[in-house]
Structures are given as C-alpha cells and as structure tokens.
Fold this sequence. Notes:
Strand 4 (106-109) and strand 5 (112-113) form a beta hairpin. The strands form six sheets. The chain has a 22-stranded antiparallel barrel. Strands 1-6-7-4-5 form a five-stranded mixed sheet. A four-stranded antiparallel sheet has the order 15-16-24-25, with no helix packed on it. It is globular, with a radius of gyration of 29 Å. The chain is mainly beta and 738 residues long. Helix 7 crosses helix 8 (341-360), helix 7 runs antiparallel to helix 10 and helix 8 crosses helix 10 (385-400). The model is unreliable at 1-33 (pLDDT under 50). It has three domains: 1-31, no CATH class; 32-253 and 284-317 and 414-521 and 557-737, TonB-dependent receptor, beta-barrel domain (Maltoporin, Chain A, Beta Barrel); 324-410, no CATH class. Helix content is 14%, strand content 49%.
Amino acid sequence: MQTPSSPTAAALLTLCLGLTAHPLCADSLDPLELPTVLSATRLKQAPADVPGSMTVLDRELIRASGARNIPEILRLVPGMHVGYRRGNQMNVNLHGTNVTEARRLQVLVDGRSVYRPGLATVDWSELALAIEDIDRIEVFRGPNTAAYGANALMGVINIVTRLPMENHGTTLKYTHGNRGVRDWYASHSDGSLQHNWRLSLSAQQDDGFDHDEDGNDYRDGMRATRFNLRHAWQLTPNQTLDWQMAASEASRQSYYEFSTYFNHNKFDNPLDQAIAAHQPDADIRGRDFSTLGLWKLDINPDHQLQVQAYAQHAERLRDWRICESPIAFSAELTELRSLNPLAARRVRSYQEYLWRLEEAGRTAPDTRDEYIARYLAMEGMTYTPRMAELADTLAAMAEQQRNAEPVCGRINENIRETRTHVEIQDVLRLTPELRLLSGASYRHDRASSETFFNGTVDNQVTQLFGNLEYRPNQRWLFQAGGMYEYEQLIGDSFSPRLATHFFLAPLHSLRLVYAEAVRSPDMYENHANWRYRLREVTGPLSGPVIHYGWARGPGDLHQERMRSHEVGYNGHFPLLGLQLDVRAFDERITGMNSEPLKLDNFLPNNRSSIRFKGAEGELDWAFSRMDRLRLTYAYIAFDATSEYDQRLTARHSGSAAWLREWPGQIRTSLIYYGADHLNERRFERLDSRIEKQFTLADRSSLALALTWQYRLDDEALTWEENRFDSRSHYYLSAELNF
C-alpha cells in the first residue's frame, strides 16, 4: 500500500478543515466526543443538527465571567438585552421589546419552568438557585413554542445544574466586595454507585444602586438565602430517578409606591402636607418552594421513555400603610371611574391646574366641562351630563377637603402562585434514518391575591408535542415539529416548525427554518381585578374601605403570534478548536399587548406589533491549550408600533471574551460588553477576573479570585435613576474544596 505523499496529506487535511469536506473525512471524526444540546427540540442533538441557533454557556465560561447573577451571565448571548428596573429587579429580553417587562422568554431550571403564571415574569433575584450549582446554560435564540409551548415566543433559557455524582466533597465559598456585596455558598456531595446526592446552601446580599439622578440615596438592596437538594438514583442498569428540592427566602428593598389621587407634593395645604410627609418603606418579601422528579427508562438503545413531574409555590408579600385624600374613597369618584377612567383622571388634572393658577393669581381660560370634553373627544369618547354632574360634585369636595385630615390604613400587594406539572415523553428511532419524539403534558396554574384578582384565578393547560427527524443521507436533514396546546382561559393553538439542513461536511450545516409561535396573556393582563382595600383605618372614615382605583382585565385578550424565518450556518472545526454559528432572521410579532398596566391606566389590548430583522453570530475559539477567545455580535433593525417596545432594543450589541490559563494554576479572563441603545442609553463595560489556585492536599484546594467591573461610559443603567458613585465594582472570593 502506497503511503500518501506530503502534498496529498496536506490537501486532505485542508479538505477536512474546510466547509466542503468529503465523506472520507467522516471516519477521522468518529473518535471525537462532540457536544450535544437538549433544549432545542428535547432531543439530544449536535449543534449542527439544531433547527435554530443555540448558545451554550459552559461551566468554565460562567466561572470566568465572575457574574453573581444569571442575567449578567446572559450578556454573553448574542442579541440578549438586560434591563434594570432597579438594583434588585432585572429583566432579560431577546432582541428587545418593553424595558420593564420580560414576558416572552421561557426560562427553565432542569426542565422546570420558573416563568410565573400570574404576572408573566421571572424573578431573577429570587430564584432558588446558586450560580455555583450550574453546569451550563443553554439558550435557544428564536421562537420555540413548537417544543415548549406558549411563552417560549422568542426563545428558551434552560439552566442545567450539575449532577451530584460530579466531584464528591465539600465546597465553602465567601465573596466580599464594594456596593455591599456579601455572598456565601456551602455544599456537600457524596454517594455510591447507585445513590448520589448534593446539598447546597447559599446567600446573596448587596446594596443595589448608590443614588438617583438627583444624588439622593437609592434604597434598592436585596438579600436572599437558598436551599437546594438533589438526589440521583440508579434504580437498574437502564433506569434512573432524579429528584430535587429547592427553596428560597428573599427581601427586596422598595420605596413607598402608592399613587394618590392628587399630587400632594405640589401643594402646601394641611392635607397636602400630611399626605406628602407619609412615605414609609414598602419592601417586598419573597418565598419560593419547589420539588421535581424525573424518571428515565432506556427500553433499548433505540427507545427511551421519561416522566417528569414537579410542583412549585411562590409568594410575593408586600404590605404597608398609606395616607390618601378622603375624596379617593367617595362613591362619586368610584362611579365616575366606572363610567370613564379618563374622565376621572381629567377631573384630577383640571383641579390641580386650577390650584396652580390660583397660586399664580390667574384664572383658567376654559371651564372644567370644556377641558374634560376636549380630552375625551380626542379619544373618541363622549362627555355625558352625568359625568359633568359628578365632576362638579368632586370639585366641590376637593375644595372642602384641603384642610381635612387624611384617611390612612394598611393595604397589601400580596400574591401567591402555585403550579403543578406532569409530562411524559417518548423518543423512538423508527429506522436508521428516522427518529421521533412525542409527548404530552398537563399543567395546573393558580394565582391568589385579594388585591390583584379579588380572590383566585385558575388555569389548566394540556399539551401534545412532537418532533420528527429524517436524515435520508449524510447531506440532508429534515425536521418537522409542533405543539398543540389547550388553555382553559384562552383556548387552543398550534405552533409548527419546519427546518432543512444541508451538510457541507459532517460538522458544518446550512439551515433554513420556518416557525410559528404564540404567547398567552397572563392572568394579570387578562383577568386582573385590582383594587386596594384599606384596613386599620384612621381619619374621617371608618374601615375597611375600598379605594376608587379599579383595574379590570378585559378577559378576551387573544394570544400574541410570531412568524419567523431564519437562515443560518453552524460549523465546528475540531482541529482548530473553533466553533461558529451565524444566523439571519426576520421575525414579526402581531397582536402584542404593549400597554403599561397601571391602576389608573389599565388598558391591555392586542393592537401592537413589532418586526425584527437582522443578523447575529458567535465564535468560540480555543486557539491554544491555554487560551480561549469568544466573540458575539448582533445587529437588529426593528419597527415597533408602540414606543414602549422600542426601549430595550440595541441596533448593535456584542461581547468579546479572552480566557487564559497561566502557569502556576493562575486563570484570568477579560470580557467586554457593549450595546449602543438600551432605553436610549449606551452601555459599555470591561470585566476582568484573576484566580489563583493553591493545592493544599491530595483532594483539597483553595482558590482566591478578584473580579473587577469597570464601566467605560458614564450613562445610567437602563433608567435615569439607576446610578453608582463609581464606575468601578470589585469583589474578592475565597473558595475552599476538600
């Protein structure tokens, strides 16, 4: 047999590295242990087989980021935008939309949804999960209702925790830094061939932002403690049971956030002075509990069955004492509010207008009726005689009460949400070319709140899902998937996805994807019955009494709908240590509810739409045994009908990370994050981390790490009031393993 010449070998190597590799290269790839992902179709797939773009943030990258919370880690995902409503309240959106809401991403922890059913959000600060327990985070960037149902409209974030059989032993860690950072983590894992378990306890604390735009102290710190227990049981050689339990308790600082009928800060009468001086804190207390079980049975190498069930309960408790003008509890204002909320607001604004003119010694150019009628006409509404009669009565009451005593009492914004979920999933290889995933699930959601729902709202959801994967030869892969979903409160829907892959080489594919997706309105949007009931009342009224403000959900909102087209490329160059994924997309969402949902302006509807067009990509390159380079970039052009959906969309954003392992057990990382437009503000930050590890004994080690974050711009973070005294943020951690 003739040995290949040098030029022939070089040509063959070039061919295998290139995008047009010949099938003969496939044999050389067989020994490689290629990565797989789970969160795209629920099937184990190589990245080149995924019907869309998938970002995997591995344990090494998570540790190198030095991040203390998951949203900060997600800045490494192309097209992912992080917004801060305050220091202890973060939101994460893929490609953008409303800066204060995060309604359109499904978030899972080991397959358990932590997306709240009542208020359509994720409480990132209060997740019962420690960063140290995370193995990887898989982010499917694009609509994935076909695999995970409504609310996976724009993508899925699946946080996968470490298996308890990894690294038996004990870990103790403490982190201390400026801005009040005080974190600790403790875990112990042990086991045998059949049983493995891990128990972890952790806590986080920080002071949030330092001051607002006026230089005043900003009260938005947080404190959280967490408990996690996981047990993996090898029942038989082909059967496993994974069981988890988690709990958390948290406290988030918050200001007095009750909107009185009149703005008493602008005036100086006795009633105004008494109400303006009443500003108690209104902190939020949270408690979460969950348990999950996952049973897997490998019937044979081509057939696997699994059943997953979980239950969870979340409480957000907030109560405080308010003071308000007696007029806010009057039957007249309540009646006017029921006839026309805008008329009730215009009575208020005209009265404040008169008082300002009175202080300036001037008179109004138009009458109250002319003023209110004009504003109602602009919205196509009619100002009726009964409204005018009520407006006159209220104006007289407002004048009489300017020297009155305020009405004070306790209110609350408590809400409790529970979810139970059971799911069965079957994976079957029908032929060498054909693989089928199918499954069904049932979920029951309940939200209870006297304030927000006047009781309890229940929803039952049934799902049928499947994904068919057909590979006729080495060059082509076809996939078809879909989810049929029936919701008690909404009705039924079907979300399909079709994908075609053409393989330039075994690890290089071009893909075309078409997908449809939906998002169901949450209980709060569609079924709110929001009123404040005062108890322990003092002042001119006796309680309990009900505030005039009343927000009612319409009950007939329909689902938001997305249609997405994508063309992409995924490539893996194993000899170069290089992975690359790029995509171009066109996504259009219609029937959006983008309105602010305030007590005095609660008008949810399906009138908004947005269209995203753009391209994004990521490159991960281990260019030496010691160095790793990771680059991400996203360009997003958008057209939104609502101004609220234009706030958290950056046209250009990305990150650049360099990780290096030095001699002497030293690791460093340098990461740049940038976005040109987050709520009209630029964001640029440089993060650096250095870690030194000391070997103490055979199985004992100590790691010391310093993380330093430095803002390259001088902008507030998301909102004008979110400001720090210094651009620098640093914290030092010590981790002992034995």
